[in-house]
Amino acid sequence: MNVNQNQRILYADFEDKVQLPILDITHPLFNASIDEQAYHLNCLKSARSIESLKKMPGFIRNIFVKMSNVDNSYLSGMRTLLYKLGPYLSRGIKLGFRDKWAVKQTSFMGLRIRLRDLCRRQRKILLPQLKQFPERNLCFFNIAGGAATDSINTLILIQESDPDLLKGRKIEINILDIDAYCPHFAKRCIDVLKQPGERFHSLDVTLNIIHYNWSNPEALLKMSLERSGWIQLCSSEGGLFEYGSDSDILENLNRFFTNSPADARVTGSFIFDRAHVNPGYLGFTEFIGVQIRYLGLDGLQRILTQTSWVLEDFHEIDTIYILFSLKKA
Q: Does residue 322 contact residue 297 with C-beta atoms inside 8 Å?
């Protein structure tokens, strides 16, 4: 598929001879699927919409819940990927009626904004480290990483900023996830991106899939030690900090701290606390049964007092998402 005759969309095999687009946040069709003003206005009016929905007959409310495509109290990795692709990059994919409807909804635009902004933050963190230490390898630990869209796109942004920074060093993306379904698609994306003429052809990029339950983070401790001399970034977008318990978050932070280098970073996203979150988002997630954490900035700071990590920076998205980075104290 060509866009303006020269902007291609790359595809990777998913399953049963189905191909899905490789999510590239620099693609014009991805950028065209983000209208921040429209998203902001949607957030403002969403509270009224939820209240109206609650007054509708039960069978209509049940239809709406089914249309929202929640699987076992959370949005699955592949559906999250689909909604991040947006209505334009996903055009041409054979979808069921519910997914066709959902991918066009303004409310899911927040997933694309969250991804874009986190990748920019991760590029900002890594660029000076890569410039200062050309001899060190680069390692991503992506907890509940799914298709690892933030890790892959952070590499794309770095490459666009300074392509020489990634050459001549080993690069690893380690997806630590309880479900291998979505990570296997990520692996195929890397395979395509490494083909001659594509973005990562000249790079030594490896993607590893590690079966990982964040309630038992010993694998993170071991893997970090094995890469002790590397530049290390541990991230969890829409994962640990949005669904994990305080103890899960604490254990993962402490395990990663133990063996990671002094300049290691942790990045991710979490939700505003109940008192300050967008009321429409709160009503929507409770209405469809998503078991999400309303951690809030105070909640994260409370957990950090039991670690040796400190909050380096944070960024708010429409009183819903907070993106953050942690550094060692």
A: yes
